[in-house]
Amino acid sequence: MRQIRGGHAVFDVDVSQIVALGEVYERAGKDGPKIVAAAMNQRGNVAFTQVARATAKETGLPVGQTKQHMRKVKAQPRDLVFTIRAWGKNLSLKNFGARQVRKGVSHKGWGRRQVAKGAFIIEKYDGEVYRRISKKRRPITKLYGPSIPDEMVKGESYPAMLRAFDGLADRLMHELGRRLGRK
User: Fold this and answer.
1) Which of 12, 28, 73, 1 is nearest to 172 (CA)?
2) What SS3 state is found at 122?
3) What pLDDT, in 10s, does the model give residues 86-97?
4) Cβ contacts of residue 147 below 8 Å, gap of 6+?
5) How is residue 138 annotated by DSSP?
6) Total Cβ atoms within 10 A of residue 124
7) Binning pLDDT at 50, 70 and 90, where does residue 27 land?
């Protein structure tokens, strides 16, 4: 499930519909929930990395900076849900390699180089990007780029997460064999 709740983007993965789950519980007995949680957490870590990479590509930020706005909540034996959360508002254009050019400010927001026409950088204000909103000198308004939670729930991020969890049934069988000693 993907959604935005209170400025947070949330991906939840619920394993209740997986057919291989029955076999795991049947063979593992009381260790079943532990095995399922371990398999979900391994695939969830893969999904987290793939979502971070896809979101970084969509926003134009480095992967490390994207991951600073994301957290994972691991599955537990008592709660078999793996969650990826992202938070934050729209980031300032200065975070996207903004530089002054003749026509305005060039930046790499949304993953591609583009020009904010008529914009300018004020070094005194930590290199922030502004634009006048009238013909007069003032008022001016600050310009922003993409938001990580917004970009995480659209584009390539969600399909990347689904692809990472495609191998969950195989991972369940791997964990089952590992825990039960290949019986």
Assistant:
1) 28
2) strand
3) 998 999 999 999
4) 88, 89, 90, 91
5) -
6) 7
7) confident
